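Hi everyone, sorry if this is the wrong subforum. Our group has a chain we'd like a structural model of before ordering constructs, and none of us has done structure prediction before. Sequence below.
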Amino acid sequence: MERAKSVLKWNERSETAKTLILVAMVVGGTAAGYGLFMFATGTTTPLVVVTSESMVPTLNVGDLLVLRRVPADQIHEGDIIVYQDTWYTGAPIVHRVVRIEDVDGVLHFYTKGDANSVEDPGDRTYDEIVGVVVLTIPWVGNISLWLRSLLSTPIGIVTIILIFGLILFGPELFARAADTETEESKSDATNSEDHD
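Answer:
Right subforum, don't worry. Here is the predicted structure as tokens:
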């Protein structure tokens, strides 16, 4: 650790520079980790947040889903899949496979939300499927939904910028304030000794 600090000249850097270096390391590590996660799950979208109530009570709004891409012949009736919607909003849809038809060697997947009374229009081909749900983490996706809603308003954007500004520059400001207070204390102590 000391060698890394000396190579980075850590003790000579300002608090802002240290914070920026740490943020860059966290962002880089997160991106690398997510890249490995995508590779391991076989999909470019291994995490999806449930945004509608169409799968209640199985899935709720704000549930975080972990997906895995599997071969078409390993997708079965009853599996919950995420597919790219081409008939409604263009957004990913999380629904259950209710039947599968083989048409000239091509599998067609028919889906329906657990809370819906009718099947989704049309069918899904394997190319439209993002992945099969392998894990559900309740409520964690609410953080993402909250950030999305926050970023959809000008006040929310300003709030996020202020929070990140405080994270980046707050340590430097606090360090400077502490240094100023220490210098003032030393100055007051020196002045009081001079008067004695």
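For your construct planning: The chain is about 45% helix and 20% strand. The chain has a mean pLDDT of 88.
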